[in-house]
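Shipment paperwork, digital attachment
Item: protein structure file
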Amino acid sequence: MKMLSLGDELKSTSYPGRGIVIGKSEDGKYAVTAYFIMGRSENSRNRVFVEEGEGIRTEAFDPAKLEDPSLIIYAPVRVLNNQTIVTNGDQTDTAYDGLAKGLTFEQSLRSREFEPDAPNYTPRISGLMTIENGNYDYQMSILKSNNGDPSACNRYTFSYENPKAGEGRFIHTYMGDGNPLPTFEGEPTVVDIKGDIDSFTSLVWENLNEDNKVSLFVRYINIADGSYETRIINKNK
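Attachment content:
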């Protein structure tokens, strides 16, 4: 697959939905991840990211305006020892609990499927980053309806060993705006990972649609010792 510009991919559609980027920094020193959320409804836009332990959670920016919390309030990022889990829903907890019991990432997500938000049936996208003894690899998963048919769940897991410096994979919930929203198709897109954490964060945020973007989380994890830096941007302040 040809490597594409992450900035160009982000700005190519007004509504990619929620998205996960995972890869390795240009200098090869850091495992990199970004997770963003977007929203079209007032309920979806009424959110912020806040830190919780080593991870983050979403919460209502204005609690008085919170309508249905079921699919919008969750912990997108959790850390289990040397593993960082990033997802677009409460399957973060499912993956965390499964890994803690000795299951694989794929096995852990077997009990879940796409979101019950007909007619979109939003896919559940997830990522797992593992750093051990100076080595780094990652996996990505998408659970989606069978071309809009909710009677079946199609499950895809992609594994990346020894990722190349300056390269990442990008997966998001929708191919663009629409009604119903068109589900992401194909493998995670190969994208470039450029710059330090601040320039990378700016690149992602500035290329997301201004009207629809809500929040962004970025983390750079030092592959040598597991230390990390985090950036969070919330449109609601």
